[in-house]
Amino acid sequence: MATVYLAIQESLHRPVVLKVMKPVDTDSEEWKERFLSEGRLIASLHHPNIVTIYDIGISGEHMYISMEFIDGGDLKKRMELPIPAGDCLDYLIKIGSALGAAHRHGIVHRDVKPANILFRDEDTPLLTDFGIAKQVDMDMDLTATGIFLGSPNYVSPEQADGLPVDGRSDIYSLGCIFYEMLTGMKPYQSESVIDIVIKHKQAPIPELPEEYKEFQPLLERMLAKKREDRFSDCASMVDYIKEIKQQYGHRTVTTDLDLTVADSEAIKADKPARKLNSTLLVALSIAILINIGLKIIEINIKGPAKKETDITTQSTLLEPQVAVAAQNNEAPPVEDTNFEASPAVKKALLWLGRQSLDEFRLTYPPKNNAHYYFSKLLEADPGNEQAITGILMIAERYAILADQSLAKNDYEKSRAYINIGLQIDPENDSLQSLRSLIDELEQQSLWNTIKSMLSLK
User: Fold this and answer.
1) Which of 67, 142, 233, 345 fits a disulfide with 146 by CB distance 3.0 to 4.6 angstroms?
2) In this predicted model, what pLDDT tens digit does every residue of 355-371 receive, in sequence order?
3) Catalytically annotated residues
């Protein structure tokens, strides 16, 4: 939705984050005024755990937001290493408090995810990207698709259904983050975005590992499928978490790090304890690097794949099953997901199909490619012109890939791309022309080889 720059505010000589929204297809003065009024409301939020908005406005056709620059990383990066349970609870309290402040002003975040939680310092998480959901919520009700598509791993059931949302939707998203902080895994996993969304709506709440069982009641209330079964607001949730944290208390360090009695004595000395934590983190980092090194060695032993410098790097080069399907003149498989064909789901499928098309995920990986999403949209809405156009555009993308491979004299790969594209659109002129050109080039190459052999004799 936006391009983000690190900029300098010249009047104050300070670094700022400048988020320039992509132009929208509307000249509506009412819509622009709505963007500004909502921006002013968001900028009025003053909370120690909310990123500060400096300015918001419109310049020409561009809408922009200027905000505080935070260089302490985000929660997504921090979760690459284990986070002690006590810290998890502390983050929940602070981010829950920030959400509560926003909810009291009538603002629902709608996109609470680890990448939107930044850190000013080690112990200060900050919530960012408020109001983006409202920015795209024009007259087309994109709330249900425009935001959850970016974060399907944290979407509440009601948001997935395209229903109006309130603060309890943000509580659900925060519950997903809590589970991920404790376990290192997202609550629901699948290769298909649609499958993940369905699980958020229907699958049982996941069970925490044995060492975190005491937090299961909290998780149950945050991830309840029915919003009336969740905490009524963030204030009651924060109070509940504070009670748990107080009971958890001194067990936080010993539970998370499994220290000996001698180590527990070192904790009282403060500095040695921090040295111990640093040593553990260094050891863990070394283990990760060793594991990466072993993976690299394994890849080199098997033989590294040739790197591509053109757009084929984005397309996932022909996987065996896709290539076989092409050679056998079979259409790329589309598996059934048994989803409900609601208007929100149809919008989601169209958005995902176009996104996959732009990223050249054409027929692979399974359940996450343009052909899959457009085909599912046609299954849900037979005759949908946008889906039909999308599928025809897949063939055009394969013509691009075939042309690039041909330019490198890689006839085999080019022909494979052409075969797949023609399965999708047998009447595609570009693909047919490329196929004829390859035939001519291969015949010419063969004739040149024969002449060369005859001349040698």
Assistant:
1) 142
2) 888 888 899 888 889 99
3) 121
